[in-house]
């Protein structure tokens, strides 16, 4: 079970996870690259209508930040159990969906000789101005959800949500970050958020583009 949630942090932030869990430059072949240069109402994939479109239906400049996640990635996550750190290797494949509105990611790894698989969906909600993520896997029955922001200066994603603590079997609040400064490398970390306001590092890792 610990390996499953370690790999979750690799993506999402990695996981997001992210992750992502999410680098800083995009391929010119990916949809949405020229969103900022398009006139209002002309974003790619937006249906043509005479009435104004609600913001939640429209692509925005922030969707371009998702494009850095696309591709095949491999790396190692370190998961803290007690005072020891466990190394776990994993692979993630991400692709754009619905004209660049979302990124769908598939994760594969192994835990105690058993295959591990997970799937995430990451997007930017143009209505709330927040990045959103959902995650499911073959070693749990819950759906993990989180929301986040992107700092353009540091090229860092920060997500907050809940994640299942494999040591207790209960959901705990967590904070996940991913540094996407390098387009071919993603450095992530995950912290438990304690009731007293402190945070405790529980996962860290690095993914490189294949």
> How many discrete domains?
1
Q: What CATH architecture would you give?
A: Beta Barrel
Instruction: Return Rg in Å.
Output: 17 Å
Described by the principal axes of the CA atoms, the overall outline is globular
User: What percent of residues are in strands?
Assistant: over 45%
The parts where pLDDT drops under 50 for at least 5 residues are 1-43
CATH fold name: Lipocalin
**Total number of helices:** 1
CATH homologous superfamily title: Calycin beta-barrel core domain
Helical amount among residues, as a percent range? under 10%
Q: What's the count of strands?
A: 12
Secondary-structure element string: HEEEEEEEEEEEE
Class from secondary-structure proportions: mainly beta
Average of pLDDT = 79
CATH domain class: Mainly Beta
Please summarize what this structure is.
The chain has one helix at 2-11; strands at residues 12-13, 16-17, 71-81, 84-97, 102-111, 114-125, 130-137, 144-151, 156-165, 170-179, 185-193, 199-209. Strand 3 (71-81) and strand 4 form a beta hairpin. The protein is globular and about 60 Å long.
